[in-house]
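BUG: 3D viewer hangs when loading the predicted structure for this chain

Environment: internal workstation, default settings.
Expected: structure renders.
Actual: progress bar stalls at 90%.

Input used:
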Amino acid sequence: MKWLVVTLLALAGCGGPAPRAASPPAGLSSGYEEFWVAWGRAERAGDPDLVVAADPLLTTLRRVIAERAAAGGAVRGEVARRVVAEEEVTGGGYRVTACVDYDGRRELRDGEPADPADKPEQRVAVVMREHDGGWRGVNLYYEGDC
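Structure tokens produced before the viewer hung:
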């Protein structure tokens, strides 16, 4: 009977501390930061080869940057971001969610601003996976205002 009580307590989550969520692995934060810095650099230079990501996101970002450059568009400035969550995802990897402030970034067409100057902070999630010895963004989701 004693083993039954111990088993029931264990199944109910009683009798000890709750399991802790795994800490984000080493290199995730620097890989995430590298993703944003490289993306911004690629946009400002109009050079899709500067993007540091993995497919399918890599192909998408390179296409958008190349199309903008071919149409005479440009980007100036940088975004600011504040990480609000890091969670492990099924299949390996982490979803890093941040509030991203685009006010410092301007899209230009024919040298003139093509986007509003005052934009609301956006909640942006980037799925990061280990790739080629580092962490790379593989998917990106806009989730509305922060």
